[in-house]
Design goal:
Elements (H helix, E strand, L loop, with lengths): L11 H24 E3 L3 H29 L12 H4 L3 H15 L5 H28 L3 H8 L20 H12 L4 H13 L7 E3 L1
Parallel strand pairs: 1-2
Length: about 210
């Protein structure tokens, strides 16, 4: 069952569409990112960068942790253990943290806020579609799970776990590879900083 699905339980086709949307959005905003620079001095700028590093690391580890539990089981059962016992969409939640981390890599709060808003608007629709599919597939179990488990804000009081969980190594590896893509932001943004400092790229706007 799991071989035909990605770590979050989506079909490979749906995953490809999401990636295409992500790359299309990145290409659209790339010129604005290239022409802007942080208005903060070196100290606050580096602080925001380090916070971004921490957020991306948390994202990658968190996504792998979620995959250990869901591992292709999303289409065959309601997963309600581990991170899925405290929030319904932990994979997306950790990805949200990663997006914040990428925004903070610019040493600006502005890009982090814009990327947060774009992620929230896009995934709001994604989650609604997934919930409709799961409600149709599990007409009793899924509404009951939704009734007791929050969609976005974790409730740690609900934590439940199992003595052991069967792990799909292929899906876990794929999750780590997908998560590693968040680290691509490091060299790209460092290159942009160098280009601004060396005068190779003009700064049209300084952002907080």
């Amino acid at each position: 069952m799991s071989a035909g699905f990605t770590p979050d339980g989506s079909s490979p086709t749906l995953q490809r569409y999401r990636r295409l949307h992500t790359w299309a959005a990145a290409l659209l905003v790339a010129p604005a990112m290239v022409m802007t620079q942080s208005m903060w001095s070196e100290g606050p700028h580096e602080t925001l960068e380090w916070l971004g590093y921490a957020a991306i690391i948390l994202c990658v580890l968190g996504r792998a942790w979620c995959t250990i539990y869901i591992g292709g089981r999303k289409k065959s059962e309601i997963v309600a253990l581990g991170p899925y016992s405290v929030v319904r969409n932990p994979l997306y939640l950790f990805s949200f943290v990663g997006v914040i981390g990428i925004g903070l890599q610019f040493g600006e709060v502005t890009w982090a806020l814009l990327m947060m808003a774009a992620f929230a608007l896009y995934h709001r629709q994604v989650v609604r579609r997934e919930e409709a599919v799961l409600s149709a597939a599990f007409p009793v179990a899924y509404p009951a799970y939704c009734a007791e488990t929050p969609r976005w804000l974790p409730d740690l009081r609900l934590w439940r776990n199992a003595d052991s969980v069967a792990v799909n190594p292929a899906l876990l590896t794929r999750a780590l590879v997908d998560g590693a893509m968040f680290f691509v932001a490091f060299p790209v943004i460092e290159l942009l900083d160098y280009m601004h400092e060396s005068g190779l790229v003009p700064t049209l706007l300084s952002l907080p």
